[in-house]
Write a structure and sequence with these properties.
Distance between the termini of chain A: 38 Å
Structural class of chain B: alpha+beta
Strand content of chain A: 25-35%
CATH architecture of chain A: 3-Layer(aba) Sandwich
Number of domains of chain B: 2
Number of helices of chain A: 7
Shape of chain B: elongated
CATH topology of chain A: Rossmann fold
Strand order of the largest sheet of chain B: 2-3-8-5-7-6
Radius of gyration of chain A: 17 Å
Mean pLDDT of chain B: 89
Helix content of chain A: 25-40%
Strand order of the largest sheet of chain A: 6-7-8-3-9-10
Number of domains of chain A: 1
Helix content of chain B: 40-55%
Oligomer: heterodimer
Low-confidence stretches of chain B: none
Mean pLDDT of chain A: 91
Largest sheet of chain A: 6 strands, mixed
Number of helices of chain B: 15
Radius of gyration of chain B: 31 Å
Distance between the termini of chain B: 39 Å
Low-confidence stretches of chain A: none
Order of helices and strands of chain B: HHEHHEEHEEHEEHEHEHEHHHHEEEEHH
Structural class of chain A: alpha/beta
CATH superfamily of chain A: P-loop containing nucleotide triphosphate hydrolases
């Protein structure tokens, strides 16, 4: 697998079980994602977007098929190895922000760096990232003192603070109004452009999709379309 | 020193539900404080029984002839008792060594009789080992070298209708089973404070017991030692090694087993109480911590998604337990030590519970006011109980937290 190929999925399936009923979420997804991409995963609810992100994020393992992330077969990794992969190579942005409510914005960002074993310099690094995202003045606020847009920007700061090569974002703008959604997607594009971080995000939001450079459409657990896209500028 | 983010997270998580945390801490504090008080009381009781046994003539240790422990036979004699007495007296840590010879006897005055356990003593040494003989309220105590005299208890004197300078007839069984009788002059009457003890108290000289029974020598040597709480076992072992097969060295528990059994029963109850309270605290904290873990299921899933490993997650839950236990333990120490200090200083009066009855067991006079033991031992015990209970009770919630499947938790809660 070449260095610039971050994800390689071949006939990946995932089936959940609700009692005795098997519910297929993915029915044979095959695709690759290269370094530096800004890729949108679109499709109706239940098409398998979140399931695919969970598999790529090593939160879950495929039922069948081969899924390789950073050259490592996710199905063969133990829980500890998957946690290691998430900690050092991946960043997550969730739809509901999911900041730790009892920690300030700075501490939320610092927490990931502490988990990585970073010492006293983690505070400097956290402030640096918060500054890049225009959050310096909000660093000492707790999540309940921030607006939804501000919380999601802190979540992005938390995701990129450890300099991951790949950030997975599940419906990152779903809870944001138009202006905040635009600001967030522009922020992600800037990080993609300037720091080379690869973004793979699921979305329903056409405001987000128009910024993607590649769009993969999932339908009924299968890749329906995989096509390049010319992104629009932020305020076009 | 700055706290790690994980520690801050643990601490602030406890503050999320202040009422629950307050109740948890209060539960730990009250439970552990009660445990400290109970343990302090039973330790104090044990020390009091030891002192009571020693002061009532049973001593801390007793040198007895081989076979006495099994039979309790008063006719057995130490041989050679003078050597054993000298050896005991010069053993480091032994403060008093006094010989005894005992016999069952019948006292008579006119038509009145009373069965007693006659104790032959060395009048020069006995007052150092037995505080009861210092309570002579009429007449005097036995004088060294004199024979044919006795000191009896106040209740016994009343029963026989005798007073100081009266003559009593004493009858015992001799070596060959024949009756041996003599006249004893009452030189003193003792009031111990216990009618039970006063009713059986009868001391004479060693020579009188030998003359009445035909058995020369002494039946046992009673010893008091310095700092018995800490040194009793060591002194006993040292003495036993020096004496060898010639005699046995017994502890007070073997000499007065009824008293030791009572103390052991109380100690067992206290262990049971401490165990039950610790279990209640354990399940209370486990329940509260599990509720906290259930509420934070999604948070644990997010932390797991961010790469937090299982060990770290367990560490956070245990840190929360440690914080709860530390605060609860300190409060328990404050409350428990205060209660123990009060009962160690002023005592708890149990005389009302006995409705005027005696507090005497096996010729041992028990003080009805019990005092707890107060000391530094309270600190490690408070921390051991509180931290032990909270850390152990945090293990199940920690196990629950690490078992949270992040994908499922995020999917279900979305």
């Amino acid at each position: 697998m070449p260095d610039d190929l971050l994800i390689q999925a071949e006939a990946v399936t995932k089936t959940y079980h609700a009692g005795n009923v098997a519910v297929p979420a993915l029915r044979g997804v095959s695709l690759t994602v290269g370094a530096g991409e800004f890729l949108a995963l679109v499709g109706p609810s239940g098409s398998g977007k979140t399931t695919f992100l969970n598999l790529v994020g090593a939160l879950d393992t495929p039922t069948s098929g081969a899924l390789t992330v950073f050259g490592r077969d996710v199905a063969r990794l133990g829980k500890g190895e998957r946690a290691e992969l998430r900690l050092h190579a991946l960043g997550f942005v969730f739809q509901a922000y999911n900041l730790v409510p009892v920690l300030t914005a700075r501490e939320n960002v610092e927490f990931v760096l502490e988990l990585q074993g970073m010492g006293a310099e983690r505070r400097t690094r956290a402030e640096e990232v918060l500054a890049q995202l225009g959050l310096v003045d909000l660093a000492d606020r707790r999540p309940n003192e921030l607006s939804g847009g501000q919380q999601q920007r802190v979540a992005v700061a938390r995701a990129v603070a450890s300099k991951p090569r790949l950030v997975l974002a599940d419906e990152p703008t779903a809870n944001l109004d138009g202006e905040n959604a635009e600001t967030l997607i522009e922020l992600m594009r800037t990080l993609n452009r300037e720091q080379g971080i690869t973004f793979l995000f699921s979305t329903h939001d056409p405001r987000v999709v128009r910024h993607a450079r590649r769009i993969i459409t999932l339908e009924d657990g299968l890749v329906a379309r995989d096509e390049p896209h010319t992104p629009e500028t932020a305020h076009a | 020193m700055k706290l790690s983010i994980a520690s801050r997270y643990a601490w602030r998580s406890l503050l999320r539900h202040r009422r629950r945390t307050f109740l948890s801490v209060a539960g730990i504090a009250i439970g552990c404080a009660v445990c400290l008080f109970v343990v302090g009381f039973v330790r104090g009781e044990g020390e009091m029984m030891l002192r009571a046994a020693a002061a009532s003539g049973a001593g801390h240790l007793r040198i007895a002839p081989p076979g006495w422990r099994e039979t309790g036979e008063n006719r057995l004699r130490l041989d050679p008792w003078e050597d054993l007495l000298a050896l005991a007296a010069e053993t480091p840590g032994v403060t008093v060594a006094t010989p005894h010879a005992r016999a069952e006897a019948l006292l008579a005055m006119g038509t009145r009789t009373a069965g007693v356990s006659l104790v032959g003593v060395d009048p020069a040494r006995e007052p150092q080992a037995n505080r009861l003989v210092q309570r002579v309220t009429e007449g005097r105590y036995l004088a060294p070298g004199e024979t044919g005299t006795t000191v009896i208890g106040h209740a016994l004197a009343d029963r026989l209708g005798v007073g100081v300078d009266d003559l009593l007839m004493v009858t015992t069984s001799g070596q060959g089973g024949e009756m041996g009788s003599a006249m004893l002059k009452v030189v003193g009457i003792v009031s111990t404070g216990s009618r039970l003890l006063d009713d059986t108290f009868c001391q004479v000289s060693l020579a009188d017991v030998a003359q009445l029974t035909g058995y020369e020598g002494v039946g046992d040597i009673t010893l008091l030692v310095d700092d018995p709480q800490r040194r009793l076992d060591a002194i006993r072992q040292r003495l036993a090694a020096r004496i060898g097969q010639r005699a046995e060295v017994l502890g007070w528990q073997e000499v007065v087993p009824e008293l030791a059994a009572g103390t052991e029963v109380d100690a067992t109850w206290s262990r049971l109480i401490v165990g039950v309270i610790t279990l209640v605290v354990f399940f209370g904290i486990a329940s509260a911590q599990l509720a906290a873990a259930l509420e934070r299921r999604r948070e644990f899933a997010v932390l797991s998604a961010l790469g937090m490993k299982r060990g770290r997650m367990v560490g956070i839950m245990l840190t929360e337990g440690l914080l709860l236990g530390s605060i609860g333990g300190l409060l328990a120490l404050l409350v428990g030590a205060s209660l123990t200090y009060l009962s160690a200083t002023y005592g708890i009066d149990f005389s009302g519970m006995y409705h005027g009855a005696d507090m005497g067991i096996s010729n041992i006079l028990i003080d009805p006011i019990m005092y707890s033991d107060f000391g530094w031992w309270l600190v490690p015990l408070a921390l051991l109980l509180s931290l032990g209970a909270t850390m152990l009770s945090s293990l199940y919630p920690a196990w629950y937290a690490v078992r949270t499947d992040p994908a499922e938790a995020l999917r279900v809660d979305q």
